[in-house]
Amino acid sequence: MSRRPKSDYVSNNSALRRRATFSRLSPYCLFVHTRPRLAIAQAVAVLMLAACTNASGGDATPRPASPPPPSPSDVFDGFDGPAGSRPNTKFWSYDLGNLSPDNHELQTYTDATANIRHDGNGHLIVQALKTPTGYTSGRLITQGKIPILYGTVSARIKFPSGQGIWPAFWLLGSDIDTVGWPQCGEIDVMELVNTGTTYNVTLHGPQGKSDYSTNGLSKTGLITDLSKDFHVYWVTRQPDSITIGVDGTALADFTPSSLPEGATWVFNKPMYAVLNVAVGGDWPGPPDQSTHFPATMLIDWFRYTR
């Protein structure tokens, strides 16, 4: 959705971070999603999650059964802070500002508790707000906090939906400030666009100096509205291998042979996680009178298992 590239970074190199945000025009892009992209994407593969079910049941619950206790090798955040408190600085920092001018997103990312805070019931809130002067939202990153290499990164999330709402859970290469985007690589674990039934699983990376998109994997089946309940979104990386899924269903597998001719596999290196809610942009379009604010992402837990 909105990648680190999807917004600017808090680092000194804001230009690189903005470029990352413009990932939808990446030098190469492998993706699966439920609808053709707008003019900004040229080739699309349809991905509909077959009979996707939530392990916690059909109805949303404020706080489902706790996940298994983390092992010593896990990084785990259960977001158990008191209501109104900030996220744990051991794991998280903020991307700030208008990070996606090329993508024409409308939000300004802040570190205000109005946009990012614990709810006191075991969740972290990341939400977009409409203000008299525009839109504010939150974008959390693990950059410099958690070196994510091989293993599984997962989060249990209830995403918002609505016209112009574009939430995402994704990874960016930790070397973005030195090599730029898309050379750093980007893995979109899950991004929703406007509705909970339009979701995307994507890789972005370099292919010479040209820009284009190419088809990913295609599956068809029943669609579940992912915005109606919590789901576990995950990505497992091993050398030359990436698998992305929801709950117990693998959605897509990628290897170097999945890339277009001349493209470079840039995913065998440390990356960091991003959680954000974008507003507007070339892909979703602007909010309208039907859009509900605040647009709230609830995160039940985040885990990295090496």
From TrEMBL:
Domain of life from the UniProt record: Bacteria
CDD domains, per the entry: GH16_laminarinase_like
Region spans: Disordered: 57-80
InterPro entries listed in its UniProt record: Beta-glucanase-like, ConA-like_dom_sf, Glycosyl_Hydrlase_16
Record-level Gene Ontology MF annotations: hydrolase activity, hydrolyzing O-glycosyl compounds
Domain GH16, first and last residues per copy: 61-306
PROSITE patterns linked to this entry: GH16_2
Similarity comment: Belongs to the glycosyl hydrolase 16 family.
PANTHER family (alphabetical): GLYCOSIDE HYDROLASE FAMILY 16 PROTEIN (PTHR10963:SF55), GLYCOSYL HYDROLASE-RELATED (PTHR10963)
UniProt-recorded name of the protein: Beta-glucanase/beta-glucan synthetase
Source organism of this protein record: Mycobacterium dioxanotrophicus
